[in-house]
Amino acid sequence: MGKSLLVVESPTKVKTLSKFLGKDYVIKATVGHIKDLPKSKLGVDIDKGFEPQFLVLKGKSKIVTEIKKTGKEADRIYIGSDPDREGEAIAFHVAEVIGKGKEVERVLFHEITKKGVLDAMQHPTKLDEAKYNAQKARRILDRLVGYKISPLLWEKVSYGLSAGRVQSVALRLVCDREEEIDAFVKEEYWVIDVELQLPSGERFTATLEKRNGEKIKIPSEEEANSIKNTLQGKEFIVDRIEEKERNVFPQPPFITSRMQQEASRRLRFSPKKTMMLAQKLYEGIDVGEEGSTGLITYMRTDSVRISNEAAFAARHYIEETFDKTYLPAKPHFFKNRKSAQDAHEAIRPTFVHLTPERVKPYLDKDLFSLYDLIWKRFVASQMEQERLKTKTIDIRADGFTFAARGSEVLFDGFTRIYEEEGDDNGEEKTRLPEMKEGQILSLIDILPEQRFTSPPPRYTEASLIRTLEMKGIGRPSTYATIVTTVQDRSYVKKDKMKLIPTPLGKTINKLLREFFPLVLDIGFTATMEEILDLIEDGKKDWVKQLGKFNVAFEKELHSAKEGMVSLKKEERETDIICDKCGKKMLLRWSKNGEYLVCSGKPECTNKKNVRIEEDGTITAVEEEVKGTCSECGGNLLEKRGRFGRFLACSNYPACKHTEPYSLGFSCPEEGCTGKLVERTSKKKKRFTACSRYPDCTFATNREPVEGPCPSCGAPTLFTYRNRPLCLRKGCGWKSK
Question: What residue segments make up the domains of the chain, in order of their start?
Fold first, then answer.
């Protein structure tokens, strides 16, 4: 009896699977896709039913030849690529290169453990044509949009730009939020707290909420002081005490989007990094005596479903590790959203007994952090609820009502191992002192505080993914790519975890919204995702759906070609006079935004930054002098280039002296006289470094703040989760 061929997409999988399957199998890896649409042309024959021209990718010919040769010699052929649409496309392309003379069987590895692999090998299936059709439809949709809009942007805006179908909608969301922030007008308001004391001497704080039974609004300092004066000398009486017990149910195990959100929020991982780490945990890690095994189930899923076996394994661990009060009477099973495909289980550890501490010696820091998060979330999902006692105390004083709220934990339940950060509804887990209704309290202090209403927050990667998910845009396999792509194209930049549209991003969004309303429509994009799901279920014909889309898309494309103005060529005359030659200045556009140039060019090379008000008023922005040029004595001005901010001489081009942008802080390293400067990496990530590089190699991505360090005396500290931290070698002081 000959050997069987198993084709997977990852070399890491090959190592893990070889251990489970033994010498009767030859296992080959495709190393990702082996075929795709050509880069140099559309590669889709629209007139022949959107027939795609999938070609062998550059660099994959040797792999394809090996698979074909091994396939001819094998008794049986299995394809075990990932159990999703992309994996199904790989499976079909592998089957194509092997040829029709051999039967090819599909195996689905939802977890790469010995049991999971052997079960899958014993139950092979046929290739899923409907799933492949869904992948083809998505790929062709993306190609039609990208390949036809991008050349238009090259012609009208700047060469090298591109527009993706789903990424453009994500860009719209970020730009819409920025417009909301720009349009927001903050309003002043005041809050008044009072510090009160019981006869026992215990003190607590209460907040003013009502006046004569109506919710109070305090718009000004004048009114706040008036209320403060009124309250002086008044009697404060405990009017009402309300106590309730509340149960907090554990969250379900992770789906892809929630894992990306929590990893971003807790670990500061980008979605792309999270998925890369999760892929490694899924494909297999060598954990000592147990050898190489997958530590988590498949990481692209929208289902919170778990197997009975997994639930009972978690319950056994909980019972053995904690006392029985932490074990609920029945396993917890969670309900999926209506739109969930439910093709895979939730993301969970494959073996609960492989605790984070047990596998820590075999994982690097980042792999451990993500595994720890996944493991704790899953085990917590099968633990007893947290029980809280909440208390609300209303205090009355001359028609004013103050409220004090607190809660205490009666039983920690699942929070013993996994705390739901930020999900406590703003309720402080603070115990209020005991008191009785009718009790008179002593007024210690009245504390008015000025506040302002806040604009909606900018998106983070986590909150953008959550919004995409809620609006039905994208799927587990695409969230990370969507968020990464808009940044890679320089349409969106990330600053302190916040996503901000660049001038280029705003321009592209404005043009696409004007000329491609269908492509940019959030509801339409969500509907297309639903249609792709129906194609995967075999309920929609992929060719007909592409035809419907293309008819509408071609109309918008024709309109855009006719009506889109070329920003490359457009120059608008302004009333601003050049301060060097006296001629009028022109408004011009670039990738980095609009700016002014002198109409006397090329004789006059004067340029200025510009600010355009909402009413269209154009104002030249005078550049702030940041220092003196060491070469010619001219002024050093702040400039922006491909790699962020820098200082340049005002006498350019006669003087071409430049310096890194100084942040005004001293290097923290002992004995170093350098200053901290702003630098940008090749990946366009901002970081802080010493100006004396390479003599001093200090660098960090944390924000500097005034020192000194109370431990070592370093002149500069850095922020860590809004708390100061010392980064001098050998110190490591951190604020508590």
Answer: 4-127, 138-183+457-563, 188-249+386-452, 262-381, 571-619, 623-736
Candidates 287, 317, 282; CA nearest to 299 is 282
Residue 195, both tokens = 């510090």
Q: In whole angstroms, how far apart are CA 217 and each of 26, 211, 387, 566? A: 74, 9, 34, 51
Q: Name the CATH topology of 188-249+386-452.
A: Topoisomerase I; domain 3 (2.70.20)
In sequence order, which residues have a C-beta less than 8 Å from that of residue 556 and are 6 or more positions away? 515, 516, 517, 518, 519
At residue 180, φ and ψ (nearest 5 deg) are -60, -40
SS (H, E, C) 16-49: HHHHHHHHHEEEEECCCCCEECCCCCCCEEHHHC
Contacts of 151 (CB under 8 A, 6+ apart): none
d(CA 148, CA 165): 11
pLDDT in tens, 267-288: 999 999 999 999 999 999 999 8
DSSP letters, 252-304, are: PPBPHHHHHHHHHHHH---HHHHHHHHHHHHH-EE-GGG-EE--B--S-----
Q: How far apart are CA 112 and CA 179, in angstroms?
A: 46
> What digits encode the pLDDT tens for the residues 8-36?
999 989 999 999 999 999 999 999 999 99
As given in the structure block, the two tokens for residue 723 are 């708390």
CATH class of 262-381: mainly alpha
* Average pLDDT of every residue of the chain: 92
C-alpha 509 chain-centroid distance? 20
The reply to whether the predicted model has a pTM over 0.85 is no
Q: How far, in Å, are 34, 65, 139, 511 from residue 59 at the CA level?
A: 9, 11, 21, 37
Q: Report the CATH number of the 138-183+457-563 domain.
A: 1.10.460.10
Predicted confidence (pLDDT) per residue in 419-458, tens digit: 876 544 444 467 899 999 999 999 999 999 999 999 999 9
User: How far is residue 97's CA from residue 67's CA, in Å, rounded to a whole number?
Assistant: 8
pLDDT digits (tens, 9 = 90+) for 560-611: 999 998 887 778 888 899 988 889 999 888 777 788 999 988 888 888 888 7
Q: Which two tokens stand for residue 240?
A: 């009402």
What is the CB neighbour count within 10 angstroms for residue 495?
Answer: 9
Nearest to 508 by CA among 183, 158, 148: 158
Structure tokens at 565: 């103005």
Q: What separation in angstroms does the CA of 131 have from each of 533, 534, 554? A: 9, 10, 27
Q: What gap in Å lies between CA 730 and CA 152, rounded to an integer? A: 56
d(CA 81, CA 684): 34
Which overall architecture, per CATH, does domain 4-127 show?
3-Layer(aba) Sandwich (3.40)
What region does 276 belong to: left with phi over 0, alpha with psi -120 to 50, or beta? alpha
**Of 61, 75, 72, the residue nearest 30 (C-alpha):** 61
- Please tell me the predicted confidence (pLDDT) of residue 419: 87
DSSP 545-600: HHHHHHHHHHHHHHHHHHH---TTT--EEEEEEPTTT-PEEEEEEETTEEEEEETT
Active-site residue set? 298
Distance, CA of 22 to CA of 37 (rounded, Å): 36
pLDDT digits (tens, 9 = 90+) for 56-102: 999 999 999 999 999 999 999 999 999 999 999 999 999 999 988 88
Kindly state the tokens that stand for 28.
Answer: 């080959």
Q: How far apart are CA 495 and CA 489, in angstroms?
A: 16
